[in-house]
Amino acid sequence: MPNPPTKINTNEIAQNFLNKFDTFLFDCDGVIWSGNRLLPNVKEFLEKLRHLGKQFMFITNKSTIPRKQFVEVFKSFDIEISIDQVINSAYSSAMYVRDVLKLQPGKDKVWVFGECGIPEELNLMGFKTLGGVDPRLNEPFDAATSPFLVDGLDEDVRAVVAGFDSKINYHKLAVTLQYLLKDKEIPLVGADADRVFPERGRVLPGAGPMVESLAFQSGKVPTYCGKPTMNMLNVIVSSKHLDKSRCCMVGDIMEVDIAFGKNGNLGGTLLVLSGVETEKSLQEPKEGIPTPDFYAENLGAIYNLLK
Amino acid sequence: MPNPPTKINTNEIAQNFLNKFDTFLFDCDGVIWSGNRLLPNVKEFLEKLRHLGKQFMFITNKSTIPRKQFVEVFKSFDIEISIDQVINSAYSSAMYVRDVLKLQPGKDKVWVFGECGIPEELNLMGFKTLGGVDPRLNEPFDAATSPFLVDGLDEDVRAVVAGFDSKINYHKLAVTLQYLLKDKEIPLVGADADRVFPERGRVLPGAGPMVESLAFQSGKVPTYCGKPTMNMLNVIVSSKHLDKSRCCMVGDIMEVDIAFGKNGNLGGTLLVLSGVETEKSLQEPKEGIPTPDFYAENLGAIYNLLK
Ligand SMILES: [Mg+2]
Ligand SMILES: [Mg+2]
Q: Where along the chain is substrate bound (chains A, B) (predicted)?
């Protein structure tokens, strides 16, 4: 039996928590912000970490925007970060395509099901992409007239990368299926398998159900690249040469963020209750889902203890 | 080892085949028609069966139109059939809702993800339906303004029925998820699990990937009502009091139509090669997928042998 999670609720526990780690990996939604609202005292907490010489990064399964747009979002909250402090599932998918699948930039192409984050990260690496946010995909589907089918499929497409698409439609599903079935070797890369994400007190369908739908229709098993997979961790570790034992994952979903920290043998994990999980879900863990080492109401609560 | 399939390629084999059965259950797409084209000599073959005093029905996983519209399609091909000769997965889903789930017409409501076949069959039984082809679902989704969410969910909804929807979008997926999560008891009924269907030499995504997507996001296990499930067979057998041993299922997909005949212990199965399967796929059966007792190029070929 693992130890029960330690609640960070005194100055001493908060100090000890900080002392254990050199690097903090933060999930964004439910941790740093909620929807488009920055959570209280997050900016101050990050400044404190900087002041203490701690390293931190943002590790998110949001594939709909590229990393550079995350930098803009932080800037809109008056927080300065650099692009290499952000790793999202669009970037980790692109890294997987280049470094694991060994597709060749400038030569091999990628069909994308998803929003602009995935194609933009692939394009930055030199890959041509098809599909994605091409507006012609928003037209009703007709197999006889779809501009993606009339002249045949693009022979240079060597992989399909799929993520969340709030404009999911049959045209996109149907053409993506044609690429998946084009030949047996074409892999299905899933940005992330998140079932749902929180919004305004509800949960809404995430990327996982979309990728799984493509998997079911094509008979292909997807390889996911977001949290909690090791594909995501490999991107972080290789880019930063981290000492994993001095690294803490901070997130709001146990089966995604805490599982990520545990699967990756990071030094520790912190669950904040400002997102999906509640004190109740923490006390009633589901089978196969790890519990965190530490938990706190939110990052601002830890900051307040440290003052 | 089962016997290898008998090819119907002589007058004698064709005669013996007909003599073995009193009732023929025909799949439609790939058997009776292909797209919107009637296959050759199908009309003549059906007339021959009628002349011989054989009974026949049409058993299809197409849930997008109600049974009465199938009658119209046959009429457009100059073939007269009655509505009780048609059982589609929209009707079998509605029967399941009423007779197995025991929902009460006039009181309990059903949320529908799918085209007009499902709500029309449910409405005929007296169930009120929500969702389906409501045009407001074609508007872009916003959790704060969706007319399906602003006033809360309908408390009388007791089941979700999902089938193929060529206008799949995020609004429909998101609201369907809210009903699936409304309470633990709400079942997810899938019209059919077909992965794909053939069109113009391609395969396109079927109902299965859509239902499986809803299953993945909600964590619910769907109950399917189309071929090859026994829910479909129960509807046929209870409505017709068939002698199953004198009944032959005729279809173009082994894992759907032939599996249906085998699972249901029907007297025989006939595969026609005018749809999804080819001579090659027949000779290389996949594990767990049954092979037919008989096969033929198409229904017209059998008719020609009988002349
Ligand atoms: Mg989160
Ligand atoms: Mg068929």
A: 227
